Amino acid sequence: MIKKMSFVLVSIALLLTLLYVITPISTLFQYMINAERSISGLRLHNLKTDGLEIEYLRGGSGTPLILLHGFGADKDNWNRASGYLTESFDVVAIDLPGFGNSTDNINLDYDVFSQVSRLKKILDILQIKEFNLAGSSMGGYIAGNFSARYPERVKNLWLISPFGVVGSEKSEMFSAIKNGHNPMVLPRTELEFIQLLDFLFVERPFIPEPIVKHLATKAEKRRELNTKIYEQIHRMKNREAHPESPLDEVLKNYKGPVLVSWGHKDRVLHVSGAKVLKKIIPQAQINIMASVGHLPMIENPKGTANSFLTFALKP
């Protein structure tokens, strides 16, 4: 079934495109998402902690593997890769507070320390004591800081194109921000959303036109909150990012196993960050993925998942 996943997903997308004239776009989009979850063996759950409602996906068996998405994303970013991971792990993909269907109160703080504290409470409620921890982009920044604070709980740390490596070269995104344009926060129209997708991927996944319009509308509604979260996570000063807890500082004394995966053509966060992390985490294994952009688990789900399976399940 896993081998047929891409074909099935494209077929579903095409069918939904044909049906969009008689069905609300939001409903069609949810059908697509539900299909991906089902194929990957994930089921929807929710919990409450400190007045926050948290939504997450869970499926599979084995040692827990906690998956943290990046900025502007949600738990469903992991659906395609999870289809390969649920065969070996108890996969838990979380909507971080402020994203997806979890509480998104603009009056809350979303800095890295607040999110690390919330992640600990979520895992405590789920009674998950020892686990593998993975994070993409912003999620990698949070995962790295969590691991530095609670190293006894993390069996393997998997950083995928993580934010927070201050010693890396300036990426195309940060060069654009310096010139007054932030491609990660600004999409308001269908065209701008497509431009964002082209920025994130070398070969962006097929998305039917009506779904693109729907996603652009959702992004516009979240513009104010996304701007606040972006500024808190990045601590922007004079259009430069100043992470308050850089990974190349907090992980200097980290002794646990680490896998760093990075798309070679990442335009959002420069791939040189992988070399920086290798210098300060000598035991880290580095996996640079050719012809892949900022989101390897979407652009190359099988290859991305297999890199972790090889790393974590080695004898």
TrEMBL record:
<dbReference type="GO" id="GO:0016020">
    <property type="term" value="C:membrane"/>
</dbReference>
<dbReference type="GO" id="GO:0046464">
    <property type="term" value="P:acylglycerol catabolic process"/>
</dbReference>
<dbReference type="Pfam" id="PF00561">
    <property type="entry name" value="Abhydrolase_1"/>
</dbReference>
<dbReference type="InterPro" id="IPR029058">
    <property type="entry name" value="AB_hydrolase_fold"/>
</dbReference>
<dbReference type="GO" id="GO:0047372">
    <property type="term" value="F:monoacylglycerol lipase activity"/>
</dbReference>
<dbReference type="InterPro" id="IPR000073">
    <property type="entry name" value="AB_hydrolase_1"/>
</dbReference>
<dbReference type="InterPro" id="IPR050266">
    <property type="entry name" value="AB_hydrolase_sf"/>
</dbReference>
<feature type="domain" description="AB hydrolase-1">
    <location>
        <begin position="64"/>
        <end position="301"/>
    </location>
</feature>
<protein>
    <submittedName>
        <fullName>Alpha/beta hydrolase</fullName>
    </submittedName>
</protein>
<keyword id="KW-0378">Hydrolase</keyword>
